[in-house]
Amino acid sequence: MRFWLPLFLVWGLSACASVTQPGIQTISVRTVCEGRLVSNASCLLKNDKGEWSVGSPGSVSISKSYEGLLVRCQKGSSKGENVYVSKNNGGTWGNILIGGGVGYLIDTQSGNGFDYPDSLTVVLQPPCE
Q1: CB–CB of 127/49 below 8 Å?
Q2: 3-class secondary-structure state, position 48
Q3: CA atoms of 45 and 79, how far apart (whole Å)
Q4: Does 109 map to a domain?
Q5: Do the beta carbons of residue 92 and residue 59 sit within 8 Å?
Q6: What is the CATH number of the domain that holds 48?
Q7: Would residue 11 count as lying in a domain?
Q8: Euclidean distance between CA atoms 45 and 84, whole angstroms
Q9: Domain range for residue 74?
Q10: Which helix (H) or strand (E) holds 18?
Q11: pLDDT computed for residue 1 by the predictor
Q12: Those residues with Cβ within 8 angstroms of residue 18's Cβ, 6 or more apart along the chain or in another chain
């Protein structure tokens, strides 16, 4: 039993971001066309954890992921899309220092160790509505 306790503690501590970081992130989305803010555009956000819709400008809560976040917006015939990359947050670095690879793999799988930018701007292509 004494042998397993240290291993269990290391495993438990290695999942820092999965325990300390939420799996949900609120993101604001805005759209622009020819340098002007576009209101009432419809946007779809998608990653390997799901899909979410939001009107622009607006905010939406999404599930975090290690994978990129595809954002497609449209108003009339104006369309735009971009892929936003997730970045390591503080919990991931704790996993690398304390738990090594096991915790990092857990956070990568859950997405909790990664964040997207809090504010996203999608450029719509002319003709602008």
Answers
A1: no
A2: coil
A3: 14
A4: yes
A5: no
A6: 2.60.40
A7: no
A8: 10
A9: 22-122
A10: helix 16-20
A11: 52
A12: 91, 103, 106, 107, 110, 112, 113
Cβ–Cβ under 8 Å, residues 47 and 65: yes
Residue (of 79, 70, 62) closest to 44 by Cα position? 70
Domain presence at residue 6: no
Residue 56 placed within a domain: yes
C-alpha angle 64-70-76 in degrees, rounded to nearest 5 = 130
Alpha-carbon 111 to chain mean position: 8
Task: Give the whole-angstrom CA distance, residue 94 versus residue 7.
Answer: 17
Residue 43 CA to its chain's centroid (Å): 16
Instruction: Specify the number of domains making up the chain.
Output: 1
pLDDT tens per residue across all 129 residues of the chain: 555 445 444 444 444 444 445 689 999 999 999 999 999 999 999 999 999 999 999 999 999 998 999 999 999 999 999 999 998 776 555 555 555 555 555 554 554 678 999 999 999 999 997
Contact 101, 15 (CB under 8 A): no
